[in-house]
Input
Amino acid sequence: MKKDVFTYIIGGKAGQGTKKAGIVAANFFADLKREVFQMNDYPSLIRGGHNFSVVSTSTSKIFSQYMKADLVVVLDQRSYDVHKDHVAKNGIMIYNSDKAKGKGIGIAISSESKKYDNSDLIEGVAGIAVLAAYLDVDKKTLDEIIKKEYRHNVEDNIRFAYAIYDQAYEKIKKKVNLKKGKNKKVSISGSEAIGLGAVAAGLDLYFAYPMTPSTPVLHFFASNGKKLGVISVQPENEIAVANMAIGASFTGARSMIGTSGGGFCLMQEAFSLAGMTEAPVLFYLGQRPGPSTGVPTYTEQGELLFSLNPGQGEFPRIVASPGSIEEAFYLTAELLNLVWRFQTPGILLSEKHLGESSMSVDIKPYNTNWAKPSISTSKNYQRYRDTESGVSPLLFPPSNQLIKWNSYEHDEFGTTTEEADLIAKMHVKRVAKLHSMIDYIKKNVKTVNVIGKGFPYIFTFGSTTMSVLEALDYAGIKATVVQPVYLQPFPIWELAKYKNKKVVVVEQNSTGQLEQLLKDKVGINPVLSIRQFNGRPFDPIDLSKKLRKVR
Amino acid sequence: MGKDLSTDAEITWCPGCGNFGILNALKKTVKKLEDKGVKQNHIIISSGIGCHGKIFDYVGLSGLYSIHGRSMATVQGMKLGNPDLKVVAFAGDGDAYGEGIAHMIFAAKRNADITVIVHDNGTYALTTGQFSPTSKKGFKGPSMPEGNVENPLNPLSLLLEAGASFVARGYAGKIDHLSDTLVEAVLHEGFSVVDVLQPSVVFNNTYKLYNEITAIVSKPANSFEDAAKLVKKMDKKLPIGVFYKVKKPVFHKELYGDWNPLRNKIHRKERLNQVKHLLRPK
Output
């Protein structure tokens, strides 16, 4: 049986409320106890252009948007032109006949909206009215939705929605009844999951300079931080961001940073400083297409290799990338723990596709740990005490013992040194720390997700995992998905068994960076690589066709 | 660590360096601060990279030896992490007015409750004497053998404009005056900067000049306008002392009031309840 998926697309200009309409639609589907996945596509501008929101919903778990929609609502000609090929076989196109010409059903949305103030903003509401008509939802329910979701100018919005609903109800001959699902779930964005995961692990301070696609995490803490006990700070540039976070860690505050590629470049010297001073700081690196400014509001996985060795010099680094929004929650918490346990910088590597998409989740907040470092009880404190594990216990000010963190090579106390023996000794200490970190991760951390059964073995990582899972589910393909969650240290111990197997690699970059890692580190030689690098996440139907070819 | 705040580290400044004056003034400052109720273990320092930065190893105070131009950002993070601490950033003129000038301007703008002590010797001494942001035009160094073609910056004028609530100049050759100035700077609630004239005996020996031209001003200017004139004054006499001092809201309090992220940390159980609440199906 084919997966029961219903997809809704609403497109229009920036500022017309298409993203909001997507959220409202997703909430409505959630009310029907269905699972949802919502993706917002928008260019880097504030008014005009073309924005759209796509919401796919199913009675079973759904990991991706679909680009073939049962219902497409477009508010202008440009949106019509973009989406005319996004109508599914039995789907319908509803267009704003005041602004667009085309095939499908025209509704005079703008002539109706002109009757109200702020007519542009209100047009997204039309998308909801059309959806309600198409799904044969009664007016009372529509009324409730508008009241709940659009709190400004409620009366105008209701009158406008009713007018559109009436037109749509009459013109749409074939209506659809959406089956109800089993459980009502909350849907959250990847950015919210990251924020909440950090809260659960004890984060105190979040530092970020605005940069898409990492900014929503800053916004999350700015609006929710106070009640959760997390302060958000927006300094003058990324260099200040990273150095302030290190300063905060010195006092014992759990600190985290959010940025994207360009901003992360500016943080390289501070990343290395964290490595040398052994400062626990978690970096959230949200990827967008590069190089350079690239395409700010779209998605890519082009910084995998870059993220593995940031900062000059040799020191332990941790990099991990979540394969779903739920995993983003747990992994953020886990990484905050790891950077404090091993006093070294770590990176939560993700993408626009995860950070800015939303999906239904079932998260258990108690399945997390509270980041706790090892604390010195010695009467003769040495910041860089040479221990067997390479981890030197911490102490925080105010203390009557001296606490010296040092960017120069240093002795155990923390005083600058140029002595040959001490230089070598401290290198050995940091290498020991790297090995104890790897041992710990081997024993205690799930570094690779293996999902499903069958052949081939499909290797992927990050948000592309969601695309792969949905493609397999949609097409009913039985295969094994292997998703390395940890990328540094790279879990060779888990992956070696796939060395002579039939392996396919799916990733969102043009040079095959995961593939390169698999070849170099494990000796895996894939039979096929599927790469997409146009800024858009995979469509599960397209991807399933490519995956079928391997069989 | 000795009772007089000295450490076991070998001091590698050139004999006669102005940095000794600053180190001695700092030690006096800590004692005076203790008399005024500031506990020594609450004074946390950071420094940049250059000759000035070595002070980190030479003084028995806790802190973080940062990287070039960033100590001002480091201490702002420390203050945000635990506002009970008194944080002091040491910086050279290359750190504060070159590599890290954005941090200076913004720390002044937001009135971050930090103290920045700039060892201003007008040269990059540790890298063998290149011109710096405060080098005079014509200053000769290995990167400008014919003489510096740029004009020097007036950092205190710039920081005053940016919103600094405490602006002062000291001289490494007048240790008691310098330590009094530093005490006032650390006690000031808000952004305080002390530009310390620091002779470099090898690359820019200004002892004779500063001994002749520095003149102590007894009290801060009465207005912003007067302070703006005072920091620009450079005729026969070069004023030293506190030029400007006003009360203004400080950054961390504007951000989170009297809260302390560490002392008032919300417990795990309460946090998880909040997370659960945000994750309930709406």
About this structure: The longest strand of chain B covers residues 238-245. The domain at 18-256 of chain B is CATH 3.40.50.970 (Rossmann fold). Chain B touches chain A through 56 residues (CB under 8 Å). The first helix of chain B runs from residue 18 to 35.
